[in-house]
Amino acid sequence: MKLLLLWLALVFIAVETNAAKQGKNATIPALIVFGDSIMDTGNNNRLPTLLKCNFPPYGKDFPGGLATGRFSDGRVPSDLIAEKLGLAKSIPAFMNPNLKPQDLLKGVTFASGGTGYDPLTAKIMSVISVWDQLTYFKQYISTIKKHFGEKKAQDILDHSFFVVCSSSNDLAHTFLAQSHKYDRTSYANFLADSAVKFVRELHKLGAKKIGVFSAVPVGCVPLQRTVFGGLFTRGCVKPLNNMAKQFNARLSPALESLDKELDGVILYIDVYDTLFDMIQHPSKYGFEVADRGCCGRGALSISYMCNSLNPFTCSNSSAYIFWDSYHPTERAYQVIVDNLLDKYLSKIY
Known about the structure:
Layout: H1 2-27, E1 31-35, H2 77-84, E2 107-109, H3 119-125, H4 130-148, H5 150-159, E3 161-165, H6 168-178, H7 184-204, E4 209-213, H8 222-228, H9 238-261, E5 265-269, H10 272-280, E6 289-293, E7 320-322, H11 330-345
Parallel strand pairs: 1-2, 1-3, 3-4, 4-5, 6-7
Helix pairs in contact: 2-11, 4-5, 6-7, 7-9
């Protein structure tokens, strides 16, 4: 009898160990992403907006050298996180007209370059607001139910990783249009409260594992340094970075409270410190240039100003933290994802 019990115990341990090894990929069926250009993989391509990048040299380091509508030389965090989860090497844009139902099973991004938590941001830029992204998410779930059944849709809601990334466009651009209503602190607080409201709405729609990115040091992107950082010094713009810090200081404890209140997991993902350290100490991470982008002259080039007619685009984008005057290179994104995701992903399995 003792031998039988011992044998059963060993079998149980072996089964549990094997389940644990397979657990990571088995428990995260899809990656669902909301937000702005950091996560957009092509949703702006057919919108009536100037914020597009589905033309060279964007995508020069993407597989096949394709300009897919990603605001980078290659892949963006939504792709890299999907790969980290073992799902796919890239995530499709929901607005891609060539998508088939099968393409939606491992995840999708609703992110739209130029958007923000403030509804005015999307209106100014003629892009998809984060709130409209929730409407498209409802369509996504309906499509999954129609083609794959209620059970599969529920599995995606219960076990997928939902990522939210926004605020840069609000802080860098829309604040100026809202400055008659807010000062810098109250606007940052308004944005953080809006982010919390967004997470509540997403949770109401069934999402259980939600990660929300912090604001980044937007005052250190090359465009802001060129315009507001001093003609010769081009330093980081402290008032903008302070707004980002205020947003983070308001958002982090609010999400912690929400995590305790709601079922599931609500995570605050701090990317500010990592990116700021990369910009201040580029060589520490293997980069050579941190104050300008690879595309064009790197000071103001973005969207249509970053094009194949510009003769100044660098040949070694992996040496640069920024691809254009606003968005990091794939390699910079990879460093951020590798530095942060292991820490946070352990909390969602």
